[in-house]
Amino acid sequence: MTGVHNHVNFPEELAIRPLLPRDAHSTCDSGDKQQLAFGAEAQLEGIETYGIAGRVWEAAYLVNSYIDHPPTWEFDPPLIDKHLSGHKRVFLELGSGTGIVAAKIAQAAALPGRDLVIATDLPEVCPLLEKNLFVTPKGDSANTQVTLVRPLSWGNYDHAINIVRELKLVDDPSGHEHGCITHIICSDLVYFPELLAPLLRTLLHLTSPPSISIFESQPRVIISYKIRSLSKETPFWLAFGLWFSFEPVIVRKTDANNLLSEWQRFGSDIEGDGDLAFIFVAHRRPESLNWTIPSEDIDLLGGVGAGGTCDKKSDETFETLLLMGLGV
């Protein structure tokens, strides 16, 4: 999300407080490392310096429970496909903020020596990520073999392609095994209307050639999302669904008597304040790789270019999910 008081991370009348987990199964450990980086004191300091990027947001705790959960929980779809379990995985997170989600991926989902976690945000926020991800309570470095921090401003093609090149996804003459982005993680990124088109544009950059090739599987896009203002946020989903197919994650749990619960939308049982929460898993529509991405943000959100035509259009997946009762 920035360091010097950038208007994006310091909206007018900013008045936010640290957020700590309130559910029984918390993946924000009480250990020194977690408290140092993501506890109340750290968030207060982060908010002062980095604005909204310095706070942990609700959807981060939700997606962390998806990444690292009790063995009695079963998800559909799961974070990692079984057929990919033995392959190198590259997790790229957009808008990493404090880095709490990237830290959880590095801890619970990435295999040291094989997998890679890339935490990204505005250049001004990268110092916060480096501080939280790489420094232990004793001042030692940590996670440096698993985690990278890189600048990636939404809508900035150069930032995206620089990461791709670093992973040797482009023009790799060496023949060495290279990284392929397998997961793109987005946690609480759908909020300000002016950022919706840049966010979608970056998702398209990362799922289009040369970021991917016809010989590689499309990255799995995981979006942890809490509804705050449906009227302001819906335009993103109306455009997103034109380029990506997506579905909500559902969960069932085994109780102490070894009885399975019914499937339910993951996030539906933690909405004490009345706001709806989802985790969506998405994949780029194959046919969309032949479409022209419009250069103007207003056109991108309006559906121009989708379907290979220049007229405006929208996708109904998100609204259908709400009407079907998956959002109530």
Strand content: 15-25%
Query: Could you give a short account of the major beta sheet?
Result: 7 strands, mixed
Gap from first CA to last CA? 29 Å
In terms of structural class, how would the helical and strand content be classed? alpha/beta
* Silhouette: globular
Please give the number of β-strands: 10
Which sequence of strands runs across the widest sheet? 4-3-2-5-6-10-7
Low-confidence stretches: 1-5, 170-177
The ordered string of helix (H) and strand (E) elements is: HHHEEHEHEHEHEHEEEEHH
Average residue pLDDT: 88
Percent in helix: 25-40%
Q: Rg from C-alpha positions?
A: 19 Å
Q: What's the helix count?
A: 10
Tell me the layout of helices and strands.
Layout: H1 32-38, H2 40-50, H3 58-67, E1 73-76, E2 90-94, H4 100-108, E3 116-121, H5 126-134, E4 147-151, H6 157-166, E5 181-187, H7 193-206, E6 220-226, H8 230-243, E7 244-248, E8 250-253, E9 264-265, E10 277-284, H9 297-302, H10 317-323
Parallel strand pairs: 2-3, 2-5, 3-4, 5-6
Antiparallel strand pairs: 1-8, 6-10, 7-10, 8-9
Helix pairs in contact: 1-2, 3-4, 7-8
Can you characterise this structure?
With 328 residues, the chain is α/β, with parallel strands linked by helices. It has 10 helices and 10 strands. The chain has helices spanning 32-38, 40-50, 58-67, 100-108, 126-134, 157-166, 193-206, 230-243, 297-302, 317-323; strands at residues 73-76, 90-94, 116-121, 147-151, 181-187, 220-226, 244-248, 250-253, 264-265, 277-284. α1 (32-38) packs parallel to α2 and α3 (58-67) runs parallel beside α4.
